[in-house]
Amino acid sequence: MNRKVLLDTSAILCLVLDEDGAGLVEKTLMSAKTGHESVFLSFASITELKYIIWRQRTEADADNLMKLMRTWNMKIVYPDEELCLLAGKLKKEYPLSFADAFIAATGITNKLVLMHKDPEYDSLGKILEMQRLPYKKNKRLEL
């Protein structure tokens, strides 16, 4: 069976920044190359990745990531009216950012497994199948 995976922005960042869980993201992308899995990305993640990498590093680094992502066997999902309306409903009913509402709506509408490491999605466990990557550990201030 061909698993259909939606990579959240946090999953791509996990891979790029070599965080805990990067191996799972890499394995999924490799599996997509061989046709064992289908990988999807929301248009909203492209926007988030562009500005996050540009803010944290440089515009050239952000552009290089965009070029690299084009080489991955991954389908970009753009919204239609149905997806927009569902994203609006999710934004109203759950504690989600605007981008995360679109990403979640993409997963729900297309029956995809959302791979992420963003606790914002935890409230969607009953309506969206998810594969959680290891969350970042909170750093505590030692006094």
CA radius of gyration is: 15 Å
| Total of domains | 1
**Approximately how much helix is present in the residues?**
40-55%
CATH architecture label: 3-Layer(aba) Sandwich
The CATH topology assignment is Rossmann fold
Strand order within the widest sheet?
3-2-1-4-5
Mean pLDDT across all amino acids: 95
Number of strands: 5
Give the overall shape: globular
Beta-strand residue percentage: 15-25%
This entry's quaternary arrangement is single chain
Poorly predicted segments: none
CATH class: Alpha Beta
First-to-last CA distance: 52 Å
CATH H level, superfamily name: 5'-nuclease
What summary fits the major beta sheet?
5 strands, parallel
Assign the structural class, choosing from mainly alpha, mainly beta, alpha/beta, alpha+beta, or little secondary structure: alpha/beta
Order of helices and strands: EHHEHHEHHEE
Question: How many helices does DSSP assign?
Answer: 6
Please describe what this structure looks like.
With 143 residues, this protein is of the alpha/beta class. It has a single domain (1-129), classed as 5'-nuclease (Rossmann fold). 50% of the residues lie in helices and 15% in strands. The chain has helices spanning 9-16, 22-33, 43-56, 59-70, 81-93, 98-110, and strands spanning 3-7, 37-42, 74-77, 113-116, 130-132. The chain has a 5-stranded parallel β-sheet with strand order 3-2-1-4-5. It is globular. The protein starts with a strand and ends in an 11-residue tail after the last strand.
